[in-house]
Amino acid sequence: MADGGTATMQTSNRSYEDAVVAMNSLITPTADLPPRDPTTGALNWNAHFRSFFRFIEILEMKEPLARLSVIHVAGTKGKGSTCAFTERMLRESGFRTGLFTSPHLLDVRERFRFNGEMISKDRFLYHFWWCWDRLQANNADLPGFFRFCTLLGLRMFTAEKVDVAILEVGLGGRLDATNIVESPVVCGIASLGYDHMELLGNTLAEIAWEKAGIFKAGVPAFTAPQPEEAMGSLQKRARELGITLKVAPALEDYGLSDLQLGLGGEHQRINAALAVALCKQWVMTRAPSEQHKELQKILGGGILPDSFVKGLQLTKWAGRAEVIHDPSGRLSFYIDGAHSPESMEACANWFCSRIKHEETTEVVQSSSNPERWNSKGFIMRRVLLFNCMPKRDPVLLLQPVINLCSKNGFPIHAAFFVPPYSSYTSVGTSHQAPTVTDATWQHTLQRHWESLWRDKLTDGSGFACLSRGERREPEIELLSTLKDASECNPQHGNMLGPSSAVLRSLPSALDHFRNCLTHHPQLRVQVLVTGSLYLVGDLLKLLKR
């Protein structure tokens, strides 16, 4: 136990719920935004970032932070998975790891992991109140939620004396709170694409420039393969700092072309390769003890140690490329949170490849009993369950799902849109449904879906054709059974379309899927759950994962 005293001594009269209430007070629409310049009215991001150093001084973390051994990862898609691969490989190699990621799905403590496990409530409370009370005592304006989480994570990692801390950038890179770390051991850039353009820029070159802001003079940097425009910006920034930017070698370069990763999807091989490069660099330069000399020797020979291979095979990341089979039977959820067009493409391809694999093996593992399913004789229905935040462009997100699932021979039969079940402005874990639900945005999503659906039906690509011997019924059962149901009463904010429905809540959607299976014994439903990570987290809560 690090840093003197026990958690119970420090927090005996303050509960975990008290800490959650305090954290919730930091979540406001403008909490993590900078003040506006009084002259121009523009958001002053540079001054906002510099102000973060004051919090480090108040918490007396400057020296401990300088000693912290950090792997820093930015990117548009795959940075969280890259961090997960990195952490697992180093943990399997015998190192004590700390992992900071965002967002969380079920519990805010997921953001702070030690040796793969989220921090205990006792230790969370100890570090939380340690930071909170010192900031309050100095009459400091409290940072916004993400900035406070970053401070808290850094405090935890320095106090608990991890061998290595893996930090995932929250947004961008150059002005992200995690960039307060001035001397990381190695930096990595995962695949880049268009996201947060209102803050990072409208071109890949501009976005890449912001991501490359985590580069530091004298610190090695690695990147996943990038589009030419993005790579140019990354290389330019590296040259300015006098460092060499290397593209991470592919797993095939290590003789691992047949390696099955713990995370599904071909795109995960890119993330895993970047993680290998980061781990290799860290071990070769900062492995803390003599016992790891053998590990360095193996890596120096150009091959991967067994601990790295095992780590790649065992990596799991909740809500990403995850499959859950419902105990009710014949209902499966394919869960992959994705919030950019590139991520949606990867998600759709993973979904199709996973279904193809299941068809090949004809095995579905029920959470209660292993059962063997033969798709012949069943009415197969693939369903999209989707939501995203209003700041996203739904057409750019939905189009890859329609196009790629159709192209791969696994078209989506129906789409369901549900409003948030939990609040965007709370870190609590309550399962209580909101008393008032506004489905206006979900109706907008539905209109975009129906438009894309009609276009696909008429473009001559054969979208309506079902493959692999699937049976086409006159109507999609999952929609036709809603016609006379109160569940789809427009007065309740619900609406039924030719190929989609808006339902009032996520629990009602799950109930509907299960009821359909009860009334249609020959039906089997495969639900792709994607878009907002809030939706993913809510589903995992309801499935009690």
Automatic annotation (TrEMBL):
The record's SUPFAM superfamilies line, in alphabetical order, gives: MurD-like peptide ligases, catalytic domain, MurD-like peptide ligases, peptide-binding domain
This chain's protein is named Folylpolyglutamate synthase
Residues binding Mg(2+): S102, E168, H196
- Binding positions (ATP): R320, D336
Which PANTHER family does this chain map to? Answer: FOLYLPOLYGLUTAMATE SYNTHASE, MITOCHONDRIAL (PTHR11136:SF5), FOLYLPOLYGLUTAMATE SYNTHASE-RELATED (PTHR11136)
What is the superkingdom listed in this entry's lineage?
Answer: Eukaryota
- Main location (coarse class): cytoplasm
Q: Outline what the protein does.
A: Catalyzes conversion of folates to polyglutamate derivatives allowing concentration of folate compounds in the cell and the intracellular retention of these cofactors, which are important substrates for most of the folate-dependent enzymes that are involved in one-carbon transfer reactions involved in purine, pyrimidine and amino acid synthesis.
Which Gene3D superfamilies does the UniProt record give? Mur ligase, C-terminal domain (3.90.190.20), Mur-like, catalytic domain (3.40.1190.10)
Quote the record's cofactor note: A monovalent cation.
